[in-house]
Amino acid sequence: MKKSITTGLLFFCAFVGLNAQLNFYFLPEIYGRSVDGLGSFQVQYSGADKLIGRISISVKENRSNTMVVVVTTPEVSFTTGITNFPKAVFNNSTFNFFPNGFGDIANQTRNIPPGEYTYCFRFVPIDKALFDEYENCFDAVIEPLVPLTLLNPAHQDTICIKRPILSWQPPLPLSPGTRFRLLLTEKKDEQAIQSLLTENPTLFLDNISTTTIAYPSINPELKEGKTYCWQVIAYEKGIIISRSEIWEFTVMCQESPKPDIQDSYRELKLLLNGNYYIANRYIKFAFKNDYNINKLRYSISDIEKGGEEIKHIPEIRLQHGLNKITIDLADLYLKPGKHYMLKVYPFNEPPVEVRFIYREDDEIELQ
Question: Could you tell me the pTM of the whole model?
């Protein structure tokens, strides 16, 4: 990638006439993200005579060799010194968006989509007999402020769901026209993961408008003991906005332990060593309150509804020291066979998450 100036403060200069000098100062990594930001630049003019002309700003995406927009300002005059280019003048400019995906996105959202760009500034004097045109270009890479991130299943997690709920955090800023493509495939040691996802995915879903989707019932369920890799791609009008990292998870179901009356209140953190637990009416665990907190701070959420929290959970009072806690699930209208998440927020410590499957058949409790 070519660099017009090192330091990050990019500029170009032109000698106008014999003694006059014209400099433009612009920060593309900040202001090159939006169409309106293109007008955030300064002009330094060192000539004695008033200089009148127009500024033409063009934006080109290099990877696709695609023109995005050309902005042509009205006539504006420059006098000696440094001035911010007038916003009112820029707002009255002519904006020529090119008829392609990049141009359409920039026109509709006023944002420059992620890509590798060349920005060219050109000064066009009114009196070309006295002053010459001058053009200088520089490059910048535009990426989402917040990249697309996978959420569930977690990376290198082990789950006991053969048709899991898959969810992710979208890139930001997010356009209403953004769609997602999901690829999932079985991991095979002898083949590269990226080529597996691209060439022969086990699951390929496209044109997704949400950030949570259930593994389709029409597809063969995932296999016990197999490890799977998955990735999500965000795009708009055929242009890739962001790609997530490739995460992997393993499907491995274990037989639920039988209840132990003598040890029915296991320490909360020990429950993290297991997988999905079976809960029949009650969740029981031991919690050590070292900070003399009066009330347990916790939540129960529906994993299959994208983490939607269950309302009206019972209040749990705490005493100092070890607490044996029983949460009655009977009045929470949980659905048998569905997957839920218990999340406890200890004081001054990271939260602890325990996943469980709710049932109403046998007298089986979370151990």
Answer: 0.60
